[in-house]
C-alpha cells in the first residue's frame, strides 16, 4: 500500500491518495483550484480512483469533490448521511472567508457505523442508493472482498461533526481520522453542529481501543499512532495510559509522500 499526502487549500488540509496494484482511493479531496487538481492528476497518470471516501463534509475536506465528479462521474463518493446538515452550509462559509466558486452539490452514497467496503481484487461492492448533496436518507453498503483487495471499515466518531467517521483498514493497520483525532490534539467542536462530550466518547470508545500500532492519518498535521495518542495526547488527560512511548519506527511500515 502506498499513501500519498497532498496538502490542500488555505487550511493545509490533508488529502490522501491510497494505491496498490489493484486499488486506487481518495480520502477527503480538499483540492482547490486548477493547480492542486493538476498535481493529483499528474500523480494518477491516467488512473481513475475506485472511490472517494469522506471522513466528514466540512468545506476544506470536500472542495475537490464536485470538480472530480465532473471528471469521473461514475466514481462513487461515500459519506455519513448525518453530514448533509453540515454540507448545506459550506457555500456560505466559503463566501465569508473569500473562497470563490466553491460548489458542494456533489452526489454521495450513505454509509453507517460498522459497514465494510471492499475494493479491488475482483471485488463485489454493495452500497446504498446515491444521494444528492442535500439528501441524508439511505442505508450503508455491505461488501465482499477477494484476493488482493482492500477492506475499509466505517467507524462512526460523532463529535467534530454529527456524521464524522473514520476509515479503518485493519489488514494494513491504518486509519484515516479526518478531524476527529490528530497528533497530540483532537478536533474542535465550536464550529457549529459540534459536540465535545460526544467527541471524547467517540475517541475513547472507538479509537483508543484499536491496536496501539495502528497508524493514524489525520485531516491536518502529521501522522501518528493510536499507541502514541493513548499515551501522550494532552487532550485525553487524565485518561492517558502509562504505556511505553512508541518510537518513530512505528510509522515506517507505509510510505507517505508529501506533495506541495
Low-confidence stretches: 133-145
Compute the separation of the termini in Å. 21 Å
How many β-strand stretches?
17
Major sheet strand order: 6-5-4-3-2-1-17
Order of helices and strands: EEEHEHHEHHEEEEEEEEEHEEHE
Overall structural class, as computed from helix and strand content, comes to alpha/beta
Helix content: 10-25%
Number of helical stretches of at least 4 residues:
7
Average the pLDDT over all residues and give the rounded result.
87
Dominant shape: globular
* Residues in β-strands, percent: 25-35%
What is the gyration radius calculated from CA atoms?
A: 17 Å
Could you explain the architecture of this structure?
With 260 residues, this protein is α/β, with parallel strands linked by helices. 20% of the residues lie in helices and 25% in strands. It is built from seven helices and 17 strands. Strand 11 and strand 12 form a beta hairpin.
What is the fold's blueprint, element by element?
Layout: E1 2-8, E2 13-19, E3 24-27, H1 34-44, E4 51-53, H2 59-62, H3 65-71, E5 77-79, H4 84-87, H5 90-97, E6 109-110, E7 116-119, E8 124-125, E9 143-144, E10 150-156, E11 165-169, E12 174-178, E13 181-182, E14 185-186, H6 196-207, E15 215-218, E16 224-225, H7 226-232, E17 255-259
